[in-house]
Protein: Glutamate mutase L
Organism: Phycicoccus avicenniae
Amino acid sequence: MSDAHGPVLCVDVGSTFTKGVLVDGDGTPRARAAHPTTVGTDVMDGVDAVRQELGAGDDVEVLACSSAGGGLRLAVVGYEREVTAEAGSRVGLSAGARVVHVASGPMAGADVTALRAARPDVVLLVGGTDGGNADVLLHNARRIARARVAAPVVVAGNVAAAEEVAAELAGTGRRYVVTGNVLPRIGAVEPGGARAAIREVFLEHVIGGSRLSRGRGFARLVRAATPDAVLRGVELLAQVRGEDVLVVDVGGATTDVYSVLTPQGEDAALRRDVVGTLWHARTVEADLGMRWNAGGIVEAADRERLTLPDPARAWAATVLADPGRLATTDAEWAAEEALARAAVVLAVRRHGRPGAPGERPRPLADVGLVVGSGGVLRHAPPAVSAAVVAAALTDHAGGWRVPDRAGTVLDARYLLFAVGLLADERPVAARALAAALVPSG
């Protein structure tokens, strides 16, 4: 870790666009550029195009994150669906993964078949609290060891059984990493070890493979999956601001919500939930997208009895049929705003609601800052973006207390991912960049 004085280029290689932010050594954002992601050839072609447009020569350090090619596909195999499997899923999302499969209990042949069919990049194997029952964890380790599942395994279950689990996987030549238990005791989710291990496996086996780039140059640049970098940026923003932060990223395919919360009062001392609160969390709503999943917003709004005007419903059908369609008239922007407001309300409701029966809602009422992000908001007129972000503060019908006293801001320059990339390698610059995200005064 060092704080070099020279500029650094932060690059996000997304599924559609490769975006770059050139940041001075003191953390001042200098310039931005974007280029279509070149998945069809080599993603480094898009990175080089961004680099050239920004005039970043070979002497400029490059830090990158990536969600290209669908990002990191994670399967979770746990003991009980509402306990360790649920904890594993939450930790996987916080690590920037897309959870494509969840299995719980002793795996049978059909479960192994379903796991293979999900085509995960990584398998997160969890189960049992530390010192508790290890039978299911060991059974599933044997099943995975003997199955034709090529994905590497991150073992994050009962530490008392870790050595035996490792022996089972090693015995058949499986690639694996052993880390701390995601649920060492009831009510205590500890994501740090698994999150770091998932990142390590992602970099080595997904980014380091030949799927996205032929050479090793890309692997040397990438530090994390994009959602992992964004969550790290949100964590640092919360530190710099000294307050809880909620981020809503409204995209064409999904709406992601990030929150970094500080336990207060009895939440800081008591663990009443079975799984426990993940205080730094991310949720992904795969049915709430402003283009490819616009129909999902309409359907979810109807289920939640949200009012959605007829023009917004018609606009959803239009953009679903033509995802490249952009709003141009006042009427279209009004429909776009209504659809985006619904996506924000629905996504934040889901993020705030209990993750399992008997749990409490996430304590979002004390959030001090709500950040809007995503291309949909960045390219909208300022009044539309502001109204969409404000929807998170005015929804009093979701069954939980909203952060109605929070300030709002739009990540219009797309800086959060860059804050996350810089956080550990150039912390002084990262803090300055985080501070620049929220205008003073």
